[in-house]
Amino acid sequence: MTSSSDTTLGPLGTSEHASRVGANLHVRPSGVGLRIGIACGTFNGGVTNRLLDGVLVALKESGVARDDITVAWAPGAFELPLVAQRFATMGADAVICLGAVIRGDTPHFEYVAGECAAGITRVSLDTSTPVIFGVLTVDTVDQALERCQEGPTNKGYESGVTAVEMVTLLRRPEMR
């Protein structure tokens, strides 16, 4: 794991800085009324399916209605940015990209993971739509499976929470 108690936001959270800044834009996210597009890769589908399960739990907990969630299945991680772009230009409030790129014996991993990340970033910046990187880039299948177990540490779940938080933050009057 890359997180530890030393890297976790403390009990005061973001409020400890509120008295030292003009605006402290930490939000209470709500998914009510949000339209969410999910671009999900079928390659390594046993992993992406578990990530999708995590996203759907997070979105339900956040108040996103079932009818406001659309899943589009792409062949793999490399194709996710194009699907994300289509969702963003069609009016999705946020897009969540789910994939799993597992290192092999060739440089294929670097090309796919790198271009996927760059494409997702580009779509987000070009469209001003939160596009969430829920793509696992791991060395082994075991690492991938560890990151998509049920619960709040599921990277799909984290991606769903992040999508709702980002839309809520960017809709604040101070961010417009």
Molecular structure report:
By secondary structure, the chain is of the alpha/beta class. The protein has helices spanning 45-62, 80-89, 108-127, 141-146, 155-170, and strands spanning 36-41, 69-74, 94-102, 131-138. The chain is globular and about 50 Å long. The relative contact order is 0.19.
At the fold tier of CATH, the topology name is Rossmann fold
Order of helix and strand elements from N to C terminus: EHEHEHEHH
**Separate helix tally:** 5
Query: From the helix content, strand content and strand pairing, which structural class follows?
Result: alpha/beta
CATH superfamily: Lumazine/riboflavin synthase
* Share of β-strand residues: 15-25%
Q: How many domains?
A: 1
Topology record:
Layout: E1 36-41, H1 45-62, E2 69-74, H2 80-89, E3 94-102, H3 108-127, E4 131-138, H4 141-146, H5 155-170
Parallel strand pairs: 1-2, 1-3, 3-4
Helix pairs in contact: 1-5, 2-3
Key descriptive features of the protein:
176 residues, alpha/beta, Rossmann fold, 4-stranded parallel sheet, 5 helices
Give a short summary of the structure.
The chain is an alpha/beta fold and 176 residues long. Helix content is 40%, strand content 16%. It contains 5 helices and 4 strands, in the order E-H-E-H-E-H-E-H-H.
